[in-house]
Amino acid sequence: MQEPSFSEDHSQKENHLSTKCRFLLWSWISILILIIIGVVAIVIFIRYQSSFSSIDIKYDIDIPCNPLKFSSYTSYKTGKTPWSLSTGYLDADSLLDIVVLNQNDATIGIFYGSGHGNFSQQKTYPKATTGAYVTIRDMNNDNKSDIILVYELLNEIAILINNGNQQFSSPITYPVGNYPYWLDISDFNRNNLLDVVVVNSEDASVTILFDYYNLSFSYSKTYTAGNDVTAVSVADFNNDSYPDFVTTDYSDNTISIYMNSKNGMFKSRKTYFTSVEPWGLATADLNNDNFIDIVNTNFGSFSLSVLLNDGYGHFSTRDTYYVGEGPISVALADLNNDTFIDIITANDNDKYVYIFLNKQNGKFQTYQRLTTQSYIYGVITGDFNRDGKIDIALTTGSKTLNVLLNQC
Ligand SMILES: *[C@@H]1O[C@H](CO)[C@@H](O)[C@H](O)[C@H]1NC(C)=O
Ligand SMILES: *[C@@H]1O[C@H](CO)[C@@H](O)[C@H](O)[C@H]1NC(C)=O
Ligand SMILES: *[C@@H]1O[C@H](CO)[C@@H](O)[C@H](O)[C@H]1NC(C)=O
Ligand SMILES: *[C@@H]1O[C@H](CO)[C@@H](O)[C@H](O)[C@H]1NC(C)=O
Ligand SMILES: *[C@@H]1O[C@H](CO)[C@@H](O)[C@H](O)[C@H]1NC(C)=O
Ligand SMILES: [Ca+2]
Ligand SMILES: [Ca+2]
Ligand SMILES: [Ca+2]
């Protein structure tokens, strides 16, 4: 009876010892594993952090210039609340200039370009009141680009005629609807006289001023629109060679498509849901099928909607991309020269410009972002230093214009 009990004791002792050994062994292995995990975690964290400072993660390597490379921003002083901006040739030197609408100040500012990517200090021109939108077009067909503004408080648009030598006429105004917010220019009735479509945000309407000639429009038409209609973009959506247009209906969470009846008159609008508070808007062919597609910012849901044209001017395919708090303006341009249009946007609540590269099929890669000054309203693109690479300019809440040069 003892032997078994002894042998039991003995084996228990042995078990006890080997448990101790195993405990020590496993402790060491565990510590080693923890150290390895720690090191790996630190390496990942450092790499993630450093890539985060200029750009974000996960790239499709087969897209050119990926990640993108831009200069850091150059800052130019503007007036109060620089809001909308536009680029074009405003003097006779064929070098791109930039006009900035200083919303809460009685001026617009023109930054004359040198062609090297740098600009003059702003040269100011008077305007009558606050303004919500500015664009550039040769309205009177004299081969000099004029400046067109929206006066939201006066329910008017205004045109400054370019008189050459960096001189402009004082603004000539034209009545539209209640609280106009944005406009676009085209020739809807195809008679070679320019027409202007204006969205009136506070009376849910769209005004079209037709046939600008000898400083006047010859007639206008008003169409009902969505609620708080904030932006408009003209494009031929159904490829019938007559220009159509799209609006963002901020309080309805929709965009509306207005199709031209091939006489400059418009059929009743067709709406598509986007997301919360659609605001900024741009149109271009994003998947290279020759049909024009739509991108809008959704201010309230911190996102972009991309709506692809099915070839008949219908937009049932919608993709959503998240971008951060308060996106307003959006621009479309091919930043990496692969023939596919990329998306450039920014938020009114941070200090980055966000770039979504086209995956060459109308879908977009995770954004890359570039540092700018804070609180961005307007974003535009243009080849400011004439190197064939499209650059970016934007207005900020620091009362500045920022210019970032493409170096990809
Ligand atoms: C129009 O103006 C540009 C300069 O802005 C000039 O290069 C071009 O030759 C002009 N064209 C005509 C037809 O006058
Ligand atoms: C722009 O840069 C060029 C070349 O670096 C320089 O010669 C020119 O004076 C600059 N122009 C302005 C307006 O700063
Ligand atoms: C242009 O408008 C002015 C003033 O309204 C008028 O006197 C003039 O006859 C018009 N010219 C043409 C060519 O229509
Ligand atoms: C658009 O219309 C033009 C002229 O009718 C035609 O040549 C072209 O092929 C059309 N484009 C597409 C993508 O269908
Ligand atoms: C862009 O691509 C075109 C066509 O491939 C090429 O000719 C041009 O040089 C490129 N531009 C730049 C700036 O790389
Ligand atoms: Ca016309
Ligand atoms: Ca398309
Ligand atoms: Ca591209």
UniProtKB/TrEMBL annotation:
Transmembrane residue ranges: 23-46
InterPro entries: FG-GAP, Integrin_alpha_N
Protein name: VCBS repeat-containing protein
The organism of origin for this protein: Adineta steineri
Pfam families: FG-GAP_3
Keywords: Membrane, Signal, Transmembrane, Transmembrane helix
Source organism superkingdom: Eukaryota
Residues of the signal peptide: none
PANTHER family xref list: ATP_GTP-BINDING PROTEIN, SENSOR KINASE-RELATED
